[in-house]
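Posting for a labmate who doesn't have an account.
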Amino acid sequence: MTQWAEWNFLAKINDDVVLKWLSGEMGVVTETNRLLFIPRSVSVDMFNFEATITSKFPSSEHKKMITKRDYSLSNEFKDHVYDENKQCFRAIDRYVRKKYLANHHVCLHTLQELRKQEEGEFPQICPYAYAYVFWKHTLLRTDHFYTSIRADETNRRTYEGFEYATQLIQKHINDFKEKLFNHTNLYEFDNRRLSDWIVNRFTSELCLNYFYQWLEIAKEGSEQNRVPDWNQVTRMIENRIPKMIFRHKSNVYERQVVQIVTKKESRNIELEKIINDIKCPNKSKTI
């Protein structure tokens, strides 16, 4: 508290928008701008970045006669959230398999079905199969990694409350959703579409970041035949919270606009370096 007891210097305001706002020159406000982000994952300089993605949603003229609280507690909303999350994961799963596992189907089935050679020990594990199998197993919190799972299959809903197919990141999605929920009227149909889009973007980025972290440890893990424990897995998630800022611009007369600011350049460089370092032991046609 002592740090804030006295100001040792006068704050000089350089931002033109802030100066206009303080002087009362902003005029009639017809547009509301909100920022949505996870504080520990973004840096101050990102607020000045240009948006990388922009999407527009029409403003709803017809409102349902139901309170936000009642709708958020309804089974309709819980079912909707679960289904959206499930479809989002399926899309990410298909993307990962197509981009990174296209040439490693035999590697994948060898690990997932615990196939052994006729003589000798279990064959050397492919790092790509290692990363994918344990990424999916931990993300969905399935009982066994060696259970054969179809590409688009997720855990069944138990209807015990709020649930997500991606159970490992359920807390993070809920926290993010609650922040968004306070920004919008989710019970309006069009606003629900907007909210689904934002939550799915956040979920997709988190799922992919988490997969890339498995790629980072895949070479060492596959060679040592070991995987991180659940405490380490939790830290892996915490270290991969998306560096994203959502700018929500709501115009009361026309539309709602959502812009996404991201910081991906360094990640892409790191990912390229990791992939170049990963070698599949089953690469030859003979094997």
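Reply:
Got it, the structure tokens are right above this. Residues 36-277 form one domain.
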